[in-house]
Amino acid sequence: MTNDTQKSKQTAPTLVKDVMWTQVDIVDSKCTVHNALSDMQHKKTKMLLVEKSHGYDEYGVVLIADIASKVIAKDRALDRVNIYEIMNKPVMSVHPDMDIRYCAELLTNFGLSRCPVLDNGKIVGVVSLTNIVFNGLRV
Q1: CB of 25 within 8 A of CB of 38?
Q2: Can you tell me the distance from the alpha carbon of 47 to that of 88, in angstroms, rounded to the nearest whole number?
Q3: Number of Cα atoms under 13 Å in the Cβ half of residue 38
Q4: What is the pLDDT of residues 77-105, one digit of tens each?
Q5: Adjacent-strand bridge partners of 50
Q6: Residues 6+ apart with CB under 8 A from 85
Q7: In this structure, are residues 60 and 91 in contact, taking their beta carbons and an 8 Å threshold?
Q8: How far apart are CA 46 and CA 93, in angstroms?
Q9: What is the model's pLDDT at position 3?
């Protein structure tokens, strides 16, 4: 192996697709918060992605914090609030071939801990700062 080949192998970046998880939790926007919470509890997740309603729509996201601040803190009934009422949309996403250094910078600049990974407009995974830090290390 030449020195140039060794250098290029050593400097190849870790990409989002190398550290993302592919188990993605997606709900319909008409789902109730009660059903979404049951889903979150069963899957042990703090984030649900919200499916597009039509071809020109964008994905949304609901976090535990959204449910706490927009439903529980306002004393709204969990079974009477739909996800579309409290979701954040459009959701910021990254590409699977993004260098994790740029992804970490982007997430921290926007105060996010995780975001979906989209490839050709389809969700292929979710990346988090935790994944980037623990799985992106080359120790």
Answers
A1: no
A2: 11
A3: 7
A4: 999 999 999 999 999 999 999 999 999 99
A5: 27, 60
A6: 70
A7: yes
A8: 17
A9: 57
pLDDT of residue 41: 87
Residue 68 has pLDDT above 50, yes or no: yes
Residues sharing a CB contact under 8 Å with residue 31, sequence separation 6 or more, in sequence order: 39, 82, 83
SS (H, E, C) the chain: CCHHHHHHHHHCCCEHHHHCECCCCEECCCCEHHHHHHHHHHHCCCEEEECCCCCCCCCEEEEHHHHHHHHHCCCCCCCCCEHHHHCECCCCCECCCCEHHHHHHHHHHCCCCEEEEEECCEEEEEEEHHHHHHHCCCC
Q: Is 18 helix (H, G, I), strand (E, B) or coil?
A: helix
Instruction: At 80, list the tokens.
Output: 């009477």
Residues 6 or more apart in contact with residue 7 via CB below 8 angstroms: none
The radius of gyration computed from the CA coordinates of the chain, to the nearest angstrom, equals: 18
